[in-house]
Amino acid sequence: MAGPCFLGIDIGSLTVKAVVLDAGRNLLARGVQPAGYGGQEAALSLVERLLAERHLSADDVVYSVVTGYGRVRFTDADEEVSEISCDARGVFHLCPRARTVIDIGGQDSKAIRLDASGRVVDFAMNDKCAAGTGRFLEVMAAALGVPVATVGDLALQSQHPVEISSTCTVFAESEVVSHIARGAARQDVAAGVHRAIAARVLGLAGRVGLEPQVVLVGGVAQNKGVVAALQRGAGEITVPEDPQVVGALGAALYAAQKGGR
Ligand code: ADP
Fold it and tell me: In what helix (H) or strand (E) does residue 181 lie, and over which residues does it extend?
């Protein structure tokens, strides 16, 4: 199947994401792959794979937008748009009642306030400290000896979460190691870790206010332990399907708009 299409690419610190939309803004393809070194080559190979999956070629791409941490060095897109704008666009498309967006990625976290028409009216960002990001979970999952993809499920089994008081990832890891050495149950330590990241993220989100509907996106939104820990402090949280590609979806929607559709 060939035809005009629009491409959104999100080059993150750990993964690259891409979304292809048709002229009616329907989803043709989406994908995620590890960023490798810098993300540039990974982004190109992901796009090539997604287009080939739908029997499309680069000539079918009417307009492309790149976002994410690696966007500045990526020279193969028509335009770059900030992650804040793309997250807002992608979330509002999927959840028109969204007023607060929380995005937890591999090395940063963001909170965005939207108005009723989906415009960004405020945002806060943490890209200076690993606590409150996927990196924190990666370090703690390694200390607990479980994959990061299942550490959230482990946390959900806890009856008596331990308390992790350090706000710094390095000190929090020492706390985790001493809880393990003292014989605390693995799931209780995992739950403590998830409460700690939730406290950090809610502190950030508090800077823009937690007006409902609150929508969580980014790779960490796939972690059910994080969702549960955030809900303890913030009430109902919505996670769209495939939350990791929502920024790339926003970029593709910008591409469709800029490309004249
Ligand atoms: P970035 O955009 O910075 O590259 P992502 O939004 O892709 O980051 O998020 C990466 C993070 O998502 C990882 O650090 C990990 O904590 C989390 N993650 C990725 N895949 C899964 C999964 N299957 N289950 C739970 N968490 C995941």
Answer: helix 169-181
Q: Domain range spanning residue 121?
A: 97-239
Q: In this structure, are 115 and 181 located in the same domain? A: yes
- pTM for this structure? 0.96
Query: CB of 66 within 8 A of CB of 42?
Result: no
Does any ligand 1 atom lie closer than 6 A to the CB of residue 105? yes
| Ligand 1 pocket test target in 69, 153, 223, 245 with most atoms within 8 Å of CB | 223
* Gap from CA of 14 to ligand 1 centroid (Å): 8
Does residue 218 have its Cβ closer than 6 Å to ligand 1?
Answer: yes
Q: How many structural domains comprise the chain? A: 2
| 197 three-state secondary structure | helix
Q: What is the pLDDT of residues 48-79, one digit of tens each?
A: 999 999 999 999 999 999 999 999 999 999 99
DSSP string for 209-234: --PSSEEEESGGGG-HHHHHHHHHHH
Answer for the pair 49, 31: CB distance below 8 angstroms, yes or no: yes
* pLDDT greater than 70 at residue 192: yes
Q: Is 138 in the pocket of ligand 1 (CB under 6 A)?
A: yes
